[in-house]
Design brief:
By secondary structure, the chain is of the alpha+beta class. The chain has 2 domains: 2-87; 109-348, 2-Layer Sandwich (BirA Bifunctional Protein, domain 2), CATH 3.30.930.10. 40% of the residues lie in helices and 20% in strands. It is built from 12 helices and 10 strands. The chain has helices at 2-17, 22-33, 38-44, 54-90, 109-123, 137-140, 172-181, 226-240, 294-299, 316-324, 337-340, 343-348, and strands spanning 127-128, 134-136, 159-160, 165-167, 188-197, 208-219, 247-254, 257-266, 283-292, 307-315. The strands form 2 sheets. A 7-stranded mixed sheet has the order 1-5-6-10-9-8-7, sandwiched between helices. It has a 3-stranded antiparallel sheet with strand order 2-4-3. The radius of gyration is 41 Å and the shape is elongated.
Length: 349
Amino acid sequence: MKEKIEQIKQKSIEEIKNLVDLKSLEDIRIKYLGKKGELTAILRGMKELAAEERPIIGNLVNEAKETLEKLIQEKEEEFKQEELNKKIEAEKIDITLPSSKLKRGSIHPLNRVIEDIEDLFVSMGYDVVEGPELETDEFCFERLNIPKGHPARDMQDSFYITDEYLLRTQTSSVQARTMVANTEKRPIRMITAGKTYRREDDATHSHQFNQIEGLVIDKRERNISLADLKGTLEIFVRKIIGANLDLRFRPSYFPFTEPSYEVDVTCFKCGGKGCNLCKQTGWIEVLGSGMVHPNVLKMNGYDPDQYSGFAFGTGIDRLAMFRYGITDMRYLYANDVRFLNQFDRKDEE
């Protein structure tokens, strides 16, 4: 039995030395150390040996198993290292090659304009307020002095979800919500920016566009007037569009302000001389404004005899088009890197 164990041991050692891959190594392990392996068979047959021989044979088998397990482990590590070296060699990266540059855009022009406007008004003591894009008919129209059946609704072709809910057509709804929420009747100085929706789609209109609106309300003894509105808008326009622009106020109609005004600025392309952009008038319309209508104050919890204020609003998309010379609004929503990557340079200019 001793000679048989030694023969198995020497034979397995010789076979392990000549192995060439992990699969054949596993075959050897099963052949000698598996459940039906040769050394395992000797252990199972020890019951037929004399009692005094069993410890001796058991020790010899265990020594042979330990020797084989150690050799198999060393051979396995050797094969794995060879395999890793081959993989590293095959997948080697030439770090001397120039890297491929990723195309990148820049901060979106709409976000640039929004951030600049918010920074400006925050520096003037205004709060930045947000509101829902899915709005109720009450806050989108009725609390802004536009009841059901009012002709002004025809000017806004809306996306109604139900009879009561619609995608907001104007950020003015946030002004109404701010007034209702201000139960302590503290002075209001707020702006709000965000998406609005109307069924329009051409070079100068989109079914989705962005607006920014401002609202100031305080007690009448503070004497908030059209002069305050005009001064605020002069700072706003000259900071955001151009420092040398002049403003022109034209009487207009908005249901939520009275009196109401359209605000024009001198054409930034021709300087007011007249060109194709301003249709030879020298002026470009940029926003609507006015003193808050008494009905709006009353419907949102303010006594118009004790409070007054002004409001204004404009399309951010148009401001971005004026500021950067963009000819088609649809470029703003195309996500074309060739279009977007130029705005870092434009702001530097």
